[in-house]
Structures are given as C-alpha cells and as structure tokens.
Design goal:
Layout (H helix, E strand, L loop, with lengths): L1 H32 L6 H26 L3 H28 L1 H8 L3 H8 L1 H33 L9
C-alpha cells in the first residue's frame, strides 16, 4: 500500500508540474504568435520539458524503491495528467482569450462543425491521451532503468 501511495503522489505531483509547464509554454506561444495552433518550437520545448520532468521523477522513484515498475506506473499517470492539461485545459483557456475567439470566428462552417462535434473531439482526445499514457510510462521506466543500470557505485569495493 505504501508503494501505491508513492506512485500516486509522484504521478500527481509531477504530472501536474509537467502539465503546468506545458500550459504556460502553450499560452506564451499563443500570445507571442497570436495564433491558436501550437507552433513546432513550442511543441518541441513542451515535449523536452515533459521528458525531463517525468524521466527525473522516474529516477527519483527508482532511487527510493530500487525497481523500475513503480516508475512505469508513475510515468503513465503523470503522462496522462500532462496530456489532459496540455490539451483540455489549454483548449478551455484559449477559447476565452481574444486570440482563440478570433481563430474560431475565422473557421469555415465545415471546420466549425468539426470543432463543435463533441464525439469526434472526445475520440481524438482519447487517442492522444492513450498515446501519452504509453509514452509517459516508457519515459518513467527509462529514467528508472538508466539510474539502476548506470549509477556509479556508492561505496568502494572491499578487498
């Protein structure tokens, strides 16, 4: 039960942390470029920060537990939370900003109908969320594996 609490706590904390950074980067890019679509540079920076945060959390969890399984579970949870914040919360905030409202006003009727189709949006979000859960799990596991595999010895060998 203690390991479950550790995984949940670390997954929530680092998922929210990575999600807040992703949200900030997306909003700064929106205000800098005045377009609602994320640009390649902001996507790259968001992905790199998420990789560093979740991988570092996986290393921290591996140092605590001595195994990679909790880091895999924590990475999946953190990746899902990050993706929800990156897409869902960002879309809600952007829809209230003037740049987001301007982008919605300039959509064609077909694009506006596709954007308001809740079923299609939910399916797309589910696909992105599932992918990010898998990627987050791999990042957390890889951070833990790297620590356990390549960490320097803590004590000199006894002769």
């Amino acid at each position: 039960m203690a390991r479950l609490g550790l995984v949940l706590r670390e997954g929530l904390v680092f998922g929210l942390l990575a999600g807040v950074f992703a949200l900030i980067i997306r909003l700064v890019a929106l205000l800098a470029t005045n377009t609602a679509m994320p640009n390649p540079f902001s996507s790259f920076v968001t992905t790199a920060l998420t990789l560093l945060i979740i991988g570092g959390a996986g290393r921290k969890l591996a140092a605590t537990t001595g195994t990679t399984t909790p880091s895999l579970q924590m990475g999946a949870l953190a990746g899902g939370i990050t993706e929800l914040m990156r897409n869902l919360v960002a879309a809600i905030i952007i829809s209230y900003l003037p740049a987001g409202q301007s982008a919605l006003a300039h959509l064609t009727p077909a694009a506006r109908q596709a954007a308001s189709d809740t079923g299609g949006v939910a399916i797309a979000l589910g696909q992105q969320l599932g992918l990010e859960i898998v990627v987050g799990a791999m990042i957390g596991w890889f951070g833990a594996w790297a620590l356990l595999r390549f960490q320097p010895p803590r004590k000199p060998p006894v002769n």
